[in-house]
């Protein structure tokens, strides 16, 4: 019997990719038909990502509320408008009446490029989304970006490799993020602690819009400290925006109290910011890595501070994250 396996299954009329690692009892489940959503990942019988709703609900109604939505742009754009390199952009107000939220990647079907497994590479699956295949997107965002994502399960760790390439002729505004909903079981919620390598905290509204420049705060110091900060400091529907310390170990952890384990999440250093968010519709907590601060192109601050940037024609960005489960004594 081979240790690693990758399979394509039909579940409720949709294609589901299942990656398994028998050596660690790990399994990842992807739904390309709904935003290439990583909707489940467990290792050793413990959930890191868990989705409690049916797959059809995930596809048709809740694309950004469960699993691991892929975001471009991440979070909100006020009034759906911004300017970049002298061009005005008007994105659809998909969070009526005022804002554009999270982009299109998490709501549409992706193309399965391939999947497979072997001892050297583990179990893997690659999917792709091309703006050039969607004239309605190009009508308001005229840049032929291609997003290619490979999930790779090996030695109990799940790596997400993202490649974003500008196949158009003009520089495109670039903003990318992820929205994993990490499972926080009831037996681990009490006394749960959060550790994030933060440097500063942004003052933000309840919709994550920045209201000033970032600074070191009691919370940013606590969450970056050895013991972390109590997860309960983020109330239901609460959020916090942090700038990460580029010199620190880029691993975030949720230590789940009496459950005896932690969820670890390693971030690519190209993700300079994280948004912390606690939903009120599920027993979960989100550590959302972003390449920019929410609505950065509309902020009156220097781009070096906010992460606002472009992706020149013919160039690409590569970003990686890893998720795994750690025993508390690790």
UniProtKB/TrEMBL annotation:
InterPro entries listed in its UniProt record: Aldose_1/G6P_1-epimerase (IPR008183), Gal_mutarotase_sf_dom (IPR011013), GH-type_carb-bd (IPR014718)
Q: Which residues cross the membrane?
A: none
Q: Which Pfam families match?
A: Aldose_epim
From what superkingdom does this record's organism come? Answer: Bacteria
Name this polypeptide is given? Aldose 1-epimerase
Source organism of the structure:
Paenibacillus artemisiicola
The taxonomy runs:
Bacteria, Bacillati, Bacillota, Bacilli, Bacillales
């Amino acid at each position: 019997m081979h240790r690693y396996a990758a399979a394509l299954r039909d579940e409720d009329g949709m294609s589901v990719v299942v990656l398994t690692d028998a050596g660690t009892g790990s399994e990842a489940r992807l739904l390309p038909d709904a935003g290439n959503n990583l909707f489940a990942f467990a290792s050793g019988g413990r959930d890191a990502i868990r989705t409690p709703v049916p797959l059809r609900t995930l596809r048709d109604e809740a694309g950004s509320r469960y699993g691991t939505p892929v975001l471009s742009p991440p979070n909100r754009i006020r009034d759906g408008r911004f300017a970049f390199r002298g061009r005005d952009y008007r994105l659809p107000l998909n969070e009526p009446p005022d804002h554009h939220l999270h982009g299109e990647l998490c709501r549409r079907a992706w193309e399965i490029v391939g999947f497979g497994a072997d001892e050297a590479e583990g179990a893997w699956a690659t999917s792709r989304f091309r703006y050039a295949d969607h004239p309605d997107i190009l009508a308001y965002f005229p840049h032929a970006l291609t997003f290619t994502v490979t999930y790779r399960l090996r030695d109990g760790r799940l790596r997400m490799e993202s490649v974003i390439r500008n196949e158009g002729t003009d520089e495109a505004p670039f903003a990318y993020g992820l929205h994993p909903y990490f499972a926080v079981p009831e037996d681990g919620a009490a006394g749960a602690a959060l550790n994030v390598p933060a440097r500063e905290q942004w003052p933000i509204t309840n919709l994550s819009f920045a209201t000033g420049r970032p600074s070191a705060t009691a919370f940013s110091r606590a969450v970056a400290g050895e013991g972390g900060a109590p997860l309960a400091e983020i109330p239901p529907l609460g959020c916090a925006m942090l700038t990460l310390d580029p010199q620190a170990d880029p691993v975030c952890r949720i230590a789940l109290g009496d459950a005896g384990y932690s969820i670890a999440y390693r971030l690519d250093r190209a993700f300079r910011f994280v948004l912390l968010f606690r939903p009120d519709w599920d027993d979960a907590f989100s550590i959302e890595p972003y390449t920019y601060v929410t609505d950065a192109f509309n902020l009156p601050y220097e781009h070096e501070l906010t992460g606002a940037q472009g992706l020149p024609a013919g160039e690409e960005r590569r970003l990686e994250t890893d998720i795994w489960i750690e025993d508390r004594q690790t």
